[in-house]
Amino acid sequence: MSTRIANQGRLIDRSKxxxxxxxxxxxxxxxxxxxxxxxxxxxxMLVGRSFKxxxxxxxxxxxxxxxNALVGLGQGETFEPNQRxxxxxxxxxxxxxxxxxxxxxxxxxxxxxxxxxxxxxxxFYYKTFIHPRAFWKxxxxxxxxxxxxxxxxxxxxxxxxxxxxxxxxxxxVIGGGVAGLQxxxxxxxxxxxxxxxxxxxxxxxxxxxxxxxxxxxxxEDWIAQTLDALxxxxxxxxxxRCMGSGVYDHGYVLGYERLTDHAPETAGPRxxxxxxxxxxxxxxxxxxxRPLSFAGNDVPGVMLASAMRDYAVNYxxxxxxxxxxxxxxxxxxxxxxxxxxxxxDVLRVLDARTSGGGALMEExxxxxxxxxxxxAIAKVTGGKRVAKxxxxxxxxxxxxxxxVACDAVAMSGGWSPVVHLWSHCGGKLIWDDAWAxxxxxxxxxxxxxxxxxxxxxxxxxxxxxxLGATLADADAAGKAAAKSAGFKPRRIRTPQGSVTDEAPLxxxxxxxxxAKVELRAxxxxxxxxxxxxxxxxxxxxxxxxxxxxTKRYTTLGMATDQGxxxxxxxxxxxxxxxxxxxxxxxxxxxxPPYTPISFGAIAGEARGAVFQPLRRTxxxxxxxxxxxxxxxxxxxRRPYTYPQNGETPHDAVMREVRNxxxxxxxxxxxxxxxxxxxxxxAGRFLDLLYTNMMSTLKPGKCRYGLMCSENxxxxxxxxxxxxxxxxxxxxxxxxxxxxxxAHMEEWLQTEWWDWQVYTANVTEQYAQxxxxxxxxxxxxxxxxxxxxxxxxxPFMAWADxxxxxxxxxxxxxxxxxxxxxxxxxxxxxxxxxxxxxxxAGAEFGMMPYGTEALHIMRAEKGFIMIxxxxxxxxxxxxxxxxxxxxxxxxxxxxxxAQQRSHMTDPTRWKLVGLETLDGGVLPDGAYAVAEGTNANxxxxxxxxxxxxxxxxxxxRGIAMGLVLHGPDRMGEVLEFPGTDGKISKARIVDPVFYDxxxxxxxx
Amino acid sequence: MSEPISxxxxxxxxxxxxxxEAGLQGMITLRGDLATKPVKAAVAAATGxxxxxxxxxxxxxTGTALWMSPDELLxxxxxxxxxxxxxxxxxxxxxxxxxxxxVSDARAMFSVSGPAAREVxxxxxxxxxxxxxxxxxxxxxxxxxxVPAAIWMPDAQGFRVICFRSVARYAFDLLGAAAQPxxxxxxx
Lengths: 1003, 188
What we know:
By secondary structure, chain A is an alpha+beta fold. Chain A folds into 6 domains: about 10-155, Roll (Ubiquitin-like (UB roll)), CATH 3.10.20.440; about 160-285 and about 415-485, FAD/NAD(P)-binding domain (3-Layer(bba) Sandwich), CATH 3.50.50; about 290-415, FAD/NAD(P)-binding domain (3-Layer(bba) Sandwich); about 515-580, Arc Repressor Mutant, subunit A (Orthogonal Bundle); about 620-670 and about 765-855, Probable tRNA modification gtpase trme, domain 1 (Gyrase A, domain 2, 2-Layer Sandwich), CATH 3.30.1360.120; about 675-765, Aminomethyltransferase beta-barrel domains (Alpha-Beta Plaits). Chain A is about 20% helix and about 30% strand. Chain A contains 25 helices and 49 strands. In chain A, the strands form 13 sheets. In chain A, strands 9, 10, 11, 12, 13, 14 and 28 form a 7-stranded mixed beta sheet that branches. A 6-stranded mixed beta sheet of chain A has the order 40-41-42-39-33-43. The relative contact order of chain A is 0.07. Chain B is α+β, with helices and mostly antiparallel strands. Chain B has 2 domains: about 10-25 and about 105-180, Gyrase A, domain 2; about 25-105, Heterotetrameric sarcosine oxidase (Alpha-Beta Plaits, 2-Layer Sandwich). In chain B, about 20% of the residues lie in helices and about 30% in strands. Chain B has 4 helices and 11 strands; from the N terminus they run E-E-E-H-E-E-E-H-E-E-H-E-E-E-H. Chain B has a 6-stranded antiparallel beta sheet. In chain B, a hairpin with a 2-residue loop joins strand 9 and strand 10. In chain B, helix 1 packs antiparallel against helix 2 (about 80-95). The longest helix of chain B has 12 residues, at about 80-95. The interface between A and B is large, with 53 and 52 residues.
C-alpha cells in the first residue's frame, strides 16, 4: 500500500489540495506534487502496461529517466501522449489516461503475450514473421500494429501556442543542482554573461534529499543563499523548467522551457525553445541511479532506491509500508535511513557485497535496520504489486534461502553520470572501475571550430558523486570555463561539502551472479521496450558483438526514454556474455534531445497564418476581391483565373483566353524577377550567363535569353532589357528571381571577382502589368501620356514615360503572341495603375486573366515554360532553341557541358507539338509507349507529355512533349496510355499551333 | 496623379510591444567600394553624413546610411526626395564603378517599440539583441523567422525592421504573434 506520510514532503503544500483524474477516476493531491507522487499517494502503483508483453508496470523513478509511467495527458485539442508522470507537475483539473492497455489497465488481453514470451525473443521481428511471405501484410503486421506502440496520436489541432527565443551567452550552465549553482556562481563572478537552466521547477537537485552539509549549512540553506547571490548578479540569468535538450556545433544549445504545462490556464505560449549561442557550455546534469537485474524487477512496487527516498522526503509519500532495500553500494542506505525516519518499516537491507558498506551502513544499523551482506534477490513475486521477495546468496544460482512478504523494493545498482549533453557534440567517455560507470574524459572534450574544448562537465555529471567532490569540481569547472570564454576568474573560496566515508561499490550486473535461465528471462533491462537479460545474452550468442547492432536487434534503449536506465546494464550484460571488458564494448550514441520535446516547440510560431511566408503583389487585394482562384508559385499566390457569374474555373480560363485573343486582357505580372546588372563588364558578364549574345543589345531594346547551369541544363529564361551602355535589367521567371540573383553573385564573387559588375534584385520595386490583345494599344492610347505606336515603340523595344499621369517603363514584349505591352510601375502605384487600366479598358472589353490563360496562350505559340518543358535534365537543344544559342561566342555557362557525348546524343528526346486525333486533351505527364519491354519488364517508352491544355483558340486539345527523334517524325501517331487505362492517340506536329509567322505580336 | 502607398498603410498592433507600419520611406541601394572617395562623397550627398563601418548605422543631417554588406549600403531619405538624391549620388559617383538604385517601393518598414521590443524581435531573429550587443548605431541584416530582414535602432526607444514588400503581411502577423500577451521572456 502506498500512502501519504506525515511530517515529510518539502515540496508539497498540504493546505492546497488539487483535484485530478486518472483513467476517469477522481483523485486528490497537493500543490507541488508531480503526477507520479500524487498517484502513489492514492495507492495507484499500477500505471501502465509494457510494450510487448503488456505486463503490469509501476513507477520506477522520480525524474526524467522514468520508463514506465507514461500517460496521455489532457483531452481533445490539448491531448498529448507519452508524458512522464514523474516530470508532470500536478495542477487542478489535470486528466491523465494510462496507455497501451486493452480493454482496461486492470485487465489486459495483451498480457497473454507474456505467456508466449518464448515466441517473442530478442530479434523476434526478424525471425518469427518472415514466412510465409504473404502473412506479413495480412496477419503479422496488423497484429504487431495492434499490440505495439505506446501512446495514441492526438486527433485534434493543438490549441496551444509555442515560440522560439534566440539568446547569446558567454557561458551556459545546464542543470541547477548544487553543482550547476556553484559553477554558475564561480563563472558569474568573473563578469561573464551566464545562463543557468534547470529542467525541473526546483533548484538544488538531489542535495536536499541526500543530506550532508555545505559550509556548515544544510544543503537547502546553502541553495537559498546561492540563489540569492546569483539573482543579485545582473550578468546571470536563471531559468527553471527549462531543460538543456541538446548541445550542437559552434556552441549552439537548445533549451526547452515548459511555461504553462503546470498551469494551463495561464496566457501565453505553452513551450519556448531557447536557441542559445554559448561561448562555453557546462553540463551539470547530475547522475542517474541504475536498477539491478533480478527476476521480477519490473513488478510494480520495485523502485530505484533514490526515487523512493525522493517520494518520501520531497512529497511525503511512502511507496510501501514494508520495504526491502537491495544494493551494491552505500547510497541505498540513505534510502533505508530516510524511510525509517519517515516511519516506514524497512525489513531488510540486502547488500550484495560480502563485507557490506561504510559509515552509512553503520548509521542504518544503529537505527535498528537489519542488514544482510552477500545477499541478493532471487525473485520478486506479485502480480500488480510486490507481494514477496525470495532472498538468496549473490554468489549462486538463486536458490531461495528465505521468503519475505513485503509491498515495495528499493534497488540500487550504482550511479551513472548523465553524460548525454557532454556526448552530443563528440565528448568522449572513460570507464571508471571504482564506481563502475562511464564518465566524461576531460582530455577528449567536444571541441569548437577553433579546435578548443567548449564543453566542461561538472559535479556528478563529471563522475564526482560525493557532495564535497561535486562542489569542488563544479567550482573549478565554472572558473575554467569562464577563463576559456575570455574572463578572469576571481579567487573566491570553494564551498566545502561534507564528506561521508563510503565503502567501494561492487559491480552487480546480474542478481544472483549465476542466475538460472528462468530467472534471467524475468530480469528486465529495458522496461519500456521489454528487453530482458536473456534477450541480450541471446543476441550475443547469435553473433551480435557490436553494442549498436545489439541495440537494434533487441530494441534495448530504443524507446522514448532512450535507455536512461537500461543502457549501461544492457551493455554490461553484453560485455559479460561476450567475455570482453565494458570499455571495449562501448556505449551506443547519445543523441539529442535529452528527453522528448514537443513538436510545437520545434515549429515555434510557424503555424496558422504565419506557417509560411505568403508573398502578395501590390494588386493582390484586387484579385481577392474579384474572386480569383489561386495558383501557388514559389511563395507567391498568383491568380489562376477569375471565374464570373458562377463559371467553372475551366470555363473562366477559356473565356479569358478568347477575350485576350479577340479583344484585350490584362495580367498581373509583378512576380516576374527583375535583376539590375550594372558595370563596365556587365555585357560580357551577361554573355557568359546567357546562351545568346547580350552585349550587342542596343539601349532601348529587349532580347529573350536562356540561362543554363554549368552542366548545360536549362535553368531559367526571360527578357533582358538594356537600360544604358552599362546597365541591363534581366527578367527571370517568378520562381527564379532569388536563386538567379544568387547564381549571378556566386559567379561574380568566386570566379569573376575582378570584373566590374554590380547586381541588385529589384523585383519588388515594381508592379508589372501586361496589357495583351489586338486592342491593347487602344487601351494605352486612351490612358495617354506617351507614344505607344509601332513606329515609336516597335516589338522588343522599351521606353520610359507616363500613362494616365503615372510614371512607367513600357516594354513591347509578348508571351502570348498578341500585341502586348508590359508596364512596369513603382509598386506603391501598382494598384492605382491597375485600377486606371481597368477603367480605360472597359469600353474595349478588357478583362483580367490568370496564369492558366497565360499558360495556354504561350503553349498555343509553342513557347516553353521553365518547369514544364524543363525539369533539370533538359538542355536548350532538346527544345529546338538552337536559335537562342550563340555560335559566335567563345563560351557561356553550360557550353562545354552541352558538348559532352550524352548531350549531343541524337537519341535525346526533342520537343514537338502533339495533336490528339479525337480533339481531346492528353493526360499531363503521360508517356508515349514503344514496342517491347525493358530489362525490368516495363513497357518501353519513346516520349512524354510536358504541357497539355484545351485550346479555346483552336477548339481542341494541344500538347507539347519530348519525343525520340520527334522533329524528324512529323505526322506520325503515338499512343499515350493514361492512368485510367484508356489510350490517347496523338499526331506529332510543329509545336507552334497559332500564328506561326508571328504577325499578330508585331503590329 | 495618384499618390504612392506603402505596403500596409496604417497597420498597427499593440501587444507586448507596439508594432506599426512606418509608412513610405525613401531607400537607395548603393553598391560600390565603400573605402573610396566617390562612394563616401555619394553617401554624403544622399545623407549629409558619413559612410558607416561594419554593421554600423551613420545618421547624417538629411538621411541615414545603413551598412548592408562589405560593398553595399542602404541610404535612407524622405520618400519624395529619392529622385533628387539619386541625381546627387550619381553626380558624386562620377565615373566610379558603382550601382545606385531606388528600392523604396520594394520594401516594407515597421517600427517595433516599447519595453518588450527587444524580446519580441529576439523570438524571430537569430541576433544578439541584448542591450550590450545591440544599441543605436548598430544594424543587422538577418532573418525574421522565414524571411530576410534588416533591423536597427533609430533611438533607444525602439527598432525599425525592413523586409520585402510582398511579405509585409507575414512580417506584421509574425511580430504580432511574438508580442502576444503572456509571452514576455523577462530577460532584457
